[in-house]
Design goal:
Length: 178
């Protein structure tokens, strides 16, 4: 177990011994940039991955634990969202497809074609993160969001629209009527 070494986006095939290679990282700098918007996209808490190789075919099995900083669709606040996801991939060298390798029979793992030289661990993890980002970003199910009129965060403050109306041009008319 190569614990907490510096994260590598690519693992050269020749670095994977016959008995396999297990890696463990407690950070993966830069992995979230470009996936999650904002100045602080969050951070990778843990990556575990074991690589086993037969010739140029590599089986990668592992898990990723990420704390993302997402922006709430309703109130626009940034909130933390943790994802823990297991993954399994079979990396197939590009040349194998031409030789008739049948990917359809490999339902236990995602099949990914690679260049036959370096296992693209960074790309695999990025894909996992993308798959785990929810479609709808809500800081919590009860979030009341922002008032489209006055912009008040309705979780913390009252809507000011009504008050604005009282002081607006129509208050004069209301005064006449009284
Ligand atoms: Zn919210
Ligand atoms: Zn309002």
């Amino acid at each position: 177990m190569e614990a907490s070494a510096n994260f590598r986006y690519h693992i050269p095939v020749e670095d994977i011994p016959d008995e396999g290679l297990c890696l463990s990282y407690d950070d993966a700098p830069g992995l979230l940039a470009g996936i999650i918007d904002g100045p602080d996209p969050g951070r990778v808490l843990r990556v575990n991955a074991c690589l086993n190789r037969v010739d140029d075919f590599i089986y990668v099995k592992g898990s990723i634990d990420v704390m993302m900083n997402l922006t709430c669709d309703r109130c626009l606040k940034i909130y933390p969202f943790e994802v823990k996801a297991p993954f399994a991939y079979l990396l197939v060298p590009g040349s194998a497809e031409k030789e008739g390798f049948d990917a359809a029979n490999r339902a236990d793992a995602e099949v990914l074609t690679y260049n036959g030289k370096e296992a693209p661990i960074g790309d695999i993890l990025k894909e996992q993160i993308l798959l785990q980002i929810p479609m709808r970003h809500v800081c919590n199910e009860e979030c009341k969001g922002m008032c489209p009129g006055c912009g008040a965060d309705l979780n913390d403050e009252l809507c000011r629209c009504k008050k604005d109306m009282d002081n607006g041009p129509f208050s004069v008319l209301r005064g006449l009527k009284a």
